[in-house]
What we know:
Blueprint: H1 10-22, H2 27-33, H3 42-55, E1 58-63, E2 66-71, H4 75-89, H5 95-105, H6 110-124
Antiparallel strand pairs: 1-2
Helix pairs in contact: 2-3
Amino acid sequence: MKTGPLKATEKELEILQIVWKKGATSVKDVHEALGGDEVNGYTTILKLMQIMHEKGILTRQKSGKLHLYKAVPTLEKTRQQILDKMIQTVFQGSATQLVLSALGNRKSTKEDLQEIKAYLEKLEGGEK
Length: 128
């Protein structure tokens, strides 16, 4: 298994979202979840998942006649890697600018703001 930063395309991230949600899943299930033949050909999804397996992003296990795929990186680890890269490349290393941009781009609910305040208070208290 390869280690290091995740290098996934946008389509591969879409596939990962489905695999994270469903757990061990077949190409057919992923194909259907992505909209079926109206959006992508079955063989296109099959090939992408095979490439993801070769890259070490998915594991593959035979179950009867099916191959079941599982995600190697966790959702949380992937989020963190993408966020870290975005902070470094788009926000010149400033997490503050990322947060301000995120909050400024859409209206936050009262619940969102309360959760953010609680998290900031936790950080100020030295907990993590």
